[in-house]
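Write out this protein's structure.
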Amino acid sequence: MTDNHQLLYRVAELMLEHEHHILSVDLLFDDEQIGDFVKSIQIDSPYQQMLLEGVLTESVKDEKLFVSFTVEGYFHYVLGEVVYYGTAGLDAESLAQIIHENKLNGAKEGVEQCLIREVSNHQLGRLFHLIDLGGEIGKCCYVPFAFGILSAFNNQRVNQGVDNQCSIDFLINWLISEPTESDYDVLFMAIRHLEMAQKNDCLLELFNSIIKLKQYSSISYIKTLVKGLPFFEQDIKYQLLEEIESFLETHKEHSDYPEIVFELATKWLMCAEYDRAIDMFKKSMSFFTSNLELHQEQIEKIYSNLGAAYWYKGDLDSTQHYFELSYSKCLEIFGSQHSSTSGSLQNLALVNVLQEDFEESIVIFQQALDISLKSEGYNHPNTARILSNLGSANLRLKNLNMASELFERVLSIDKAVLHPKHPSLALDYDDLGDVFAEQGDLKEAIENYKLSQSIFIDNYGSNFPHVSLLQDKINDVQKKQKK
């Protein structure tokens, strides 16, 4: 251990011991391990180096000098090392005690970092014991478990025939071979963590491992499979939807049943199975309306999704009916200046687009934009979507310069606030491709369509309906190039 490392390790250790993330410099002066470092005023002393490099920060309070870590994340990392070595050889209860009892701001994150170290060394016992304890302790486990899943995936990809204890199958079997609600809570949070990091290939392997268990007697297992459906190719997705739908009927009395029915409906909608989606949306609504006061927001979502399903079927009257119900419900629940109300207004404007009343759609989109700017601001994905719809309406009216300007603004917002593979960026590139195609810039049109297509494939697979739609656009533009 270098002198600098020893200094930082001991400072973090003292913070854990004294249960405070800011320490008196006098306390460090008197410490046998690092006192000499702190007393030295030489520019090359470890303490002075850490101050100069901005790793540690000094501050004055009540005429006393204090020291703290400058970067919180780095503090958590060093603290994780302290917890790892300080509890070596002890059982999981020693970590649970730190989580429950230590008042240090960052103690939980230190345990989390300790568990990540253990997972990287294939030491899994304490992690799985803590997962079973659940509650606040379980919340410290999902990032280490996600780290373990990702590490196993990378090992499998690099080393074919990897040792069993490094595989995703091994981790999933250990976690949910005899599952508790805590196990599934951590699994859901780990999946969400990997989703936010856009680890889609890893998630596909994870869900492939989960499929093998076939624990349809557990509604939590069914919820997990439903969450994984977007990652599969269309044929596997159909098979799973059929299986889930049949086994779900054995859980009719469970409180989660209506919500899972709703989620299945959205998945059928994504598969372009509009009639099945409509049937399941209506089925979920029959459960939610039995306790109307508790489920107002779910009912509004169903209205909105039913409108979308009928939109894709080309049933304009039903589309308008359900979008109007959605808007009325939003006004009732949220009022006229809420982001959800803005979203429902956009749907009504889309009905005008279908009716080719583009001028009226622009008026309504502008109303939705005014709400969104007040409630969410300019640099927000919802605001970007409204600007995108305004661009589409202007494109239909052949206002190409205005459409291009709006689509460019949308792209700049989405690039600033979303990750590079977010589906909204796929829509942005598709829109820009349409403008370039109308302007006769066929090379740029194809380039944007292909960018859009690649993002949709990364998120939903090659059988996603919009992928084939984009291929049709590419083919059409390529035909024009040959003329």
